[in-house]
Structure formats: C-alpha cells, structure tokens
Amino acid sequence: MPLDPRFDAVGNSNRYFNKYHKLRRALELVPAQIEQNDTELATLEQFMADLKLAENAAEVAHVKAEVQAAGYIRGKALVDKKALKAAKKGKGGKAAKGKPTAPGGGVPLHFQSREGFTLLVGKNSRQNEEVTFRQATSNDMWLHARGVAGAHVIIKAAGREIPRGTIDQAASLAAYYSEARGSTSAPVDYTLQRHVRHMKGGGPGMVIYEREHTIYIEPDKALTLLKG
After folding, report:
1. Helix crossing, 9-53 with 57-69: angle to 10°?
2. Is 222:172 a contact under the CB 8 Å cutoff?
3. C-beta separation of 188 from 144 below 8 A
4. Where are the domains of the chain?
5. Tens of pLDDT, residues 80-132
C-alpha cells in the first residue's frame, strides 16, 4: 500500500496500522471458513452420490427431500409420499420383516457373507446414519470407499473375529455403492465403529474416522453378492 500524500507520517502510519489489523482479523477467520467450505463440499458430493446410486423413484424422492431439507432447493415439498411409502416396504408391497426402517431414508440393504456375517449397506445419507449409529455397535466393523462419497457398510461382528474373506466382500459392496463404481480397483478404508464419529457441522451420515486400514478391491466383485 503506497503512502497517501494527503496524510502526514503519523496519518500514514495509522493507515498501515489499521490495514494490518483488518487483514489479521480476516486471516483469523480463514481456517473456520475453509472447514465450513470443506463440510459443505462433502455434503454436496454425498448428495451427488446418493442420486447416482438411486435405483427407483422412491430413492430419488429421498434424495430430493434431503437436498431440500439442507436448503439447496426452495419451494413446496418435493417428496413423493407414495414413493416414500413404497420405499419403506419390501418386495411385493409388504413391510420388510426384521429390517428396521431408517426415518426418511428407506431400508438399508442386508447381505450375508460366505462366512455367515450380516452385512449392512446404507445407500444414501439417511441410511448411512442408520447403519453406522443405530444398527452398529462399537465392535462392529465399518467400511467406506476412500476419498469418495458413497455407502457406509457395516459387518456385524456378533462377538466373533471377522475373517478376511468377509472384509473383502464388505469392501466390494462399499466400493460398488460409491463414486468408485466402474473403476478396476478402489481403496476402501475399514475400522471399528467406535472410531467413527459425526463430522462437525455435517448432516446425516457425514462422518470422520481414525485408526483405519486400507485395502484395494474390485467394485464388480460385489455383483456376486447382489446376484446371490
């Protein structure tokens, strides 16, 4: 900032002093703003993944409802009540037995690994919240495709040691139901559920985690479970 000839030395010194403090205050706000921007970006990426993974009108309706609830869409409710009601039912229109319904998000997917472990898959942000923080316990295993938006997958340990084969199957589901679908090999992180917590300022299913391990898996390997 050049000297202003309208001011004397003291006046210019005061200008520099005030400019310094203004910039310093602005700099102090930068980390919080960056964190807020990162959280919002992660939320938008999750919405995009939810929409890509939606396989019917009911699941699309759920995504629209979440986007509206987050304030990105204005106007009247976009929720198709008939579609939402259908999403809470299993095949043939009957309520799915033994599978709790996630509020507003539909029913998470359930699979059985070759070794007999129950695998839970959340296909959208509400289902992710459901499987991770309501259906999973602290010693269950949590999986998620690394660095991309997608499904939370839970392996129900039930007091047993989880074999590598089951981890591989669960990882393939996490990769398949994520932005990594279509790649030949995708990194998937896994850790115990107790090492997963909500992201500060994030919406449903937005998490951070620690003490993870990473494996590489082919997303298409999940097709054997889906066809079974």
Report:
1. 160
2. yes
3. yes
4. 108-227
5. 444 445 444 443 333 333 434 334 568 899 999 999 999 999 989 889 999 99
